[in-house]
TrEMBL record:
ABC transporter domain span: 5-234
Organism: Litoreibacter albidus
Xref: CDD domains: ABC_DR_subfamily_A
Family annotation (Gene3D superfamilies): P-loop containing nucleotide triphosphate hydrolases
Stated name of the protein: ABC-2 type transport system ATP-binding protein
Taxonomic lineage of the native organism: Bacteria, Pseudomonadati, Pseudomonadota, Alphaproteobacteria, Rhodobacterales
Keywords (A to Z) from UniProt: ATP-binding, Nucleotide-binding, Transport
Domain of life: Bacteria
Keyword ATP-binding among UniProt keywords: yes
Length: 308
């Protein structure tokens, strides 16, 4: 796949001297879902605002669909749809009018069929004549997405799209995002919900303190950086880890009836076979054995901690 958005050495320094972006370079591939993770103040929203032309970069360059966002702003911006964090909607406007108006802002000719298709896709068609103030928070979020899609963009930015949305509706939103990707729309979302990135992203980018720490395929990231844990449940509680097992760096479970062993999935040898043999040699009776993989949240927290 080719990059539809390309940022090269982008910096943003505010008048106060605060450096929000510190030489960010990022290629976003056509047709992918990229999840951009980072703590508050990491630079996620600033980066999106710069790409969308809402904030001017201090230095660096960005192209969207091959169009420079400064020299060819209109062409670049026409390819972008943006769903902001804030529910910024006219409360007394009807849903269908609000979405149709957004299409007109980009100079697109009237297309009732396209507007209907979007509203149906987002389960808003039966609400088309409702005023925005009558909608729930989740439905208002859908209206924002409909407005962002009204001019048929090829790149959609979702800034915290499920903030304040309940779990059930959040999963509905994930289905919507997958459907948009199936239609060929490139999607970049920022999120605080690690499970959101784990559920729908193709690649994961981690940003902290204005720097991109990494951008990797989600599966590769978890395979390369993730660790597994082996939990050995014992028949009877023990007071401490036997000294003869010290080489394994075992952790005694809170219930005193389990031993936790961490190992690298990339290693040629896991050490599990010898561990189990040595545990038995200590006279400890095994009740059960189970393994668990590090989650994306574990990896994310580790990366941010390493960078600070």
């Amino acid at each position: 796949m080719s990059a539809i958005v390309s940022a090269k050495d982008v910096t943003k320094v505010y008048d106060s001297g605060f450096k929000a972006l510190k030489g960010v370079s990022l290629d976003i591939e056509q047709g992918e879902i990229l999840a951009l993770l980072g703590p508050n103040g990491a630079g996620k929203t600033t980066l999106i605002s710069v790409i969308c032309g809402m904030v001017n970069a201090t230095s660096g360059s960005i192209t969207v669909g091959g169009h420079d966002i400064v020299d060819d702003f209109r062409a670049a911006r026409s390819l972008i749809g943006l769903v902001p964090q804030e529910l910024s909607l006219e409360p007394f406007e009807k849903v269908i009018n609000s979405v149709t108006f957004s299409r007109g802002l980009f100079g697109k000719p009237r297309d009732d069929a396209h507007i209907e298709r979007i509203l149906r896709q987002l389960s808003l068609w039966d609400k088309k004549d409702a005023r925005v103030k009558e909608l729930s928070g989740g439905m208002k979020r859908r209206v924002l997405i409909a407005k962002a899609l009204s001019h048929e963009p090829r790149v959609l930015f979702l800034d915290e799209p499920t903030a304040g949305v309940d779990v059930e509706l959040r999963k509905d939103m994930w289905d919507i995002v997958r459907g948009l990707r199936a239609d060929g729309v490139t999607i970049i979302l920022t999120t605080h919900y690690i499970e959101e990135a784990e559920a729908i992203a193709d690649r994961v980018g981690v940003i902290n303190d204005g720097n991109i720490l990494l951008v990797k395929d989600k599966a590769d990231l978890m395979a390369q950086m993730g660790r597994k844990e082996l939990c050995i449940e014992l028949q009877d509680p023990i007071g401490e880890v036997p000294a003869a097992l010290a080489a394994y760096d075992l952790v005694l479970g809170e219930d005193s009836c389990s031993l936790i062993y961490s190992y690298d999935t990339r290693g040629d040898r896991t050490g599990i076979t010898s561990l189990l043999s040595d545990v038995a040699a200590q006279g400890l009776v095994l009740k059960d054995v189970s393994t668990s993989q590090s989650s994306l949240e574990d990896i994310f927290v580790g990366l941010v901690e390493d960078a600070t």
